[in-house]
Every structure is written in C-alpha cells, then in structure tokens.
Amino acid sequence: MINLTTNSLYRAGASALTLWLATFGAQAAIIEVREGERIQDAVNQAAPGDEILVYPGLYSETVYVDKDDITLRGVVEGGNWPHLDGNKQLNDAILYSGNGFSVEWFKITHYKGNAIMGQAGNNFSIRNNWVIDSGVYGIFPEFGENGLIENNILSGIEDAAIYVGMSDYIDVRNNQVFDSVAGIEIENSRHVLVEGNLAKNNTGGILVFITPGLPIKSSYDAIIRRNFVLDNNTPNFGIPGSLVSQIPAGSGIIVMSGDEVIIEDNVITGNNNAGIIITSQDFVTAIATDTGSDPNPDAVQIRDNVMFNNGASPEGEMKLLMLTKFSTTGPDILAYQGATAAERGSCISRRNAYRAHGVDDWANCDSPTIRATDAIAGREPSDSTRAIATKMLSEPAAPRVINDDASGAEIVYQGICAGCHAYNVRLIGPPTLAIQAQYGEDAGSIAAYIANPEKKRPDFPTMPPQDHLSEPMRQLVAKYMLTLTN
Ligand code: HEC
Which of 228, 252, 255, 267 is nearest to 338 (CA)? Predict the structure, then answer.
C-alpha cells in the first residue's frame, strides 16, 4: 500500500487546493491497494477526504466504511477490474454508514447478502459498478438522503437489483438491470428520479412500493422517465415467503400504494403479464396492513409512454381478472383495487393508445386545463416533467450523526435492521412483532444474539452478525426494537 500526498482536489485547480489546505491544514491522501492487500486495511488507515484506489485483481472480503467522505475507486486497466468475490460465503461486499461516500468501478460477484449497502449514510454516489449473481440486494441505500446511483450494471439478484429503501432525494440514472426478481425498487422513499435505465428480463421491471410495517410510512414524488422496460418475464425466484416472491412474472412497472408517481416517456414492451399496474397493498396477497400508511395510490400520472406487446400471457390473479373482461391477454395498463376512483386524482394521457383497464374515472393529462394531480399537489399545471433535471439536493444534506443514545438507536434501526425486519410483514427476517413476542422485555438477549447470530429458523437465512455495532449500541437498538408499535 502506497500513500501518495496528492490531493484529490488537485484537479479542481491550484487555487481551490490552496484554499482547501488553508481551511483544513492537512492534505487528503490517495491510498493505493493492490491484489494481495486488503481494501479494509486501507479504509482503516484512511481519514475523511481520502481516496482509496483499488487496482485490478481478486479481492475476497467485506469492506465496511463507517467514516465520512471516503471514496473507493476501482482502477480498470485493459479490461481488468478490481473484483470483489464473496465465494457464496461472505454476506456483504461493501457496507457504508459514513456520509459523503463514493464507490465506483468495482466488479462484485457471489456475495450472499448485499453488493453495496448504505446504512443511513447521506450524500452518496454509487457509479459504474458491475454486479453479477450477488445475493439478495445489489445496490441498496437504506435510509439515506441525497444520493446518486448511475451507470451500474446488475444481474442475477434474488430480490431487488437496485433497491432504494426509505431514502429521499435520490437519482437512479442510466443503469442496466436484468435477470433479477425486481429490477429497480423504490420503497417508502420520497423525491426520486428514475431515468434512462434499462430494466430487462426481470420478474418485475420497476416498482414503486409502500411496504407496510416499515418506520417510514410513505412513498411519494417519484418520476419514472425515459426508461426501457422490456420483456420482464423471468419466473420469480425470490426467497419463498418474502414480499417480492409474490410479484407476478411479466410485470413491467408496478406502483403499489405510492403517491404522486409520474410515469412518463418510457418504452414498455414485451411484459407478458401487464405493462403498468397501479394498485393498493391488496395486490400482494396475504400482506398485513399498516394503520400508519395509506394503502391506496394517489395522484399517479401515466403520460406519453410507448407500449405494445404487453400481456401476452397473464398470470394467476391477472388472468382471472382479464377473463372477467372477456380477454385472454393482459393489459398495457391496469389500475385496480384502490387505484380506480376519480378522487384518487390520477390521470392518463393518450388513453386510447393503450389497452387500459380501470382508468375510466381518471382525468386526462393531455389537457392542460384538467390537471387534478396538480391541484392536489398544489402545483401550477405544467405539461411535462422535462424541466426537472434531478431530485438530488442542490446542497449536500446535513450529515447523519449517530450518537450512543436513543436517537442514535433509532437511526441504526432504520438504517440497518429495517432493511430485513418490518413490523408485521415477513421481509428477509421475521417480523418485529414475532420477535417482540419471543423476547418480551429482554433486550440483553437480543443484543447478545445480533452480535453473533446462530441459525434458528429452517425457512430463513442466517442473520448476518452486527458485531460492528458497539455493545452499548446493540443494547440500545434492541430496546428500540422491543418498543416499536407499527
Ligand atoms: C440482512 C438481513 C438482516 C438484518 C440487516 C438484520 N436482521 Fe435480524 N434477522 C434476520 C434473519 C434472516 C433472521 C432469522 C434468522 C434465523 O431464524 O436463523 C433474523 C432474526 C433476528 C432476531 C430473532 C433471533 C431469534 O432468537 O430468533 C432478532 C432479535 C433480530 N433478528 C434482530 C435484529 C436487529 C436488532 C437488527 C439490526 C441491528 C437486525 N436484526 C438486522 C435478518 C436480518
């Protein structure tokens, strides 16, 4: 490992460099890592502002970044990548809880859990990574604000390839996701732009969901724009019992309970169940409800999408539903359950271009005079979202600070535990409600368990250890888990 004294701001010009040095009085370093060395050693040695350059070669480790302003940058030379491989033994490739984290140019394969997971870090950037056959979630920022997920390629993920969970102000651009259960999933998140992505050959292409039982109760203000959503017909291979295992194959875009979702200028073809489904939480059968969240999708706009060849062979419930409409093919667009009524404030443009069901009471978006959604959202009418270039913040979000106290425990719970535990719904782990019944008030035993989890349930994976949390924090987060009520 070599430490260079070059400042990463060097490229910004000498004056910026001088200014920066005058302000901080120290130089950020570039730390180099080569095959045979450990990336984690470089992270341990790094100070905020440092950049870690990883050269091509095979690395088999979990990299955990809990410092602020660290950049992990792969060096790709002659087609050779720095390659993190988990051998189907390791749980996670890269976990970060620090703010201002960037990671780019890594190839990641064969981890069991996550390729890249954010745990409550704000102001992140995840770009140009290549993730293959790697576990449950590919790129998964959980409870983060102000982030960019761009130009990544992911395939063969058992749950969501790109999973934006309980996060705000996020752009997901120009990624390619294929051969996964869910291509891109926006869950209980606000202010999100999903643009220019290719979602192909997944079970479901792009999802905007409110999952009940999570600490963040809403999902609204999402623009799904100029994506290619093609042939998402892969049979569902999600972990049995998990939420995404219930997504019918052949689904292009699904909005479940999400509000103020604009689906605009996408190309959506060859999805054998349906092109776009707008529905309430009843869509995923056997799911519990959450008194803290509204199960119905409100103010959805479907505008100017190109759609054809969707619905060639509808599955299960969709098949039955279409038979009641005297059709053996699925629709381009289906609004149903809580999505159909006029008072939901949803609208559609060019309604006659599509084979659409359930949108009879929706307003037209083509007429600038009828814009119920704008009225509901308190916006001036406008004809398209084209003027909106990003949902990211113009200034960085305040860094998340995790103290060893009850408020810190809440952040840890939301940033880590809620990724797998919902209150009354099975996600990757058992529902919190069941754990509360099992442990009563015994926070101490939970704190001990999560440091070193053993296999308990035959039908669940083993929980990954949380031994990177301090003993006091494990106690605090265990107490927090036992007090949750929805
Ligand atoms: C990557 C997913 C994941 C994350 C993150 C996670 N868990 Fe779990 N958890 C699981 C799974 C899976 C099980 C079931 C394991 C089994 O039965 O073998 C489980 C089980 C548990 C149990 C029950 C243990 C028992 O005795 O049956 C507790 C308590 C628990 N988790 C607490 C937590 C807390 C607290 C956090 C956050 C610090 C957390 N978990 C984070 C997946 C996760």
Answer: 255
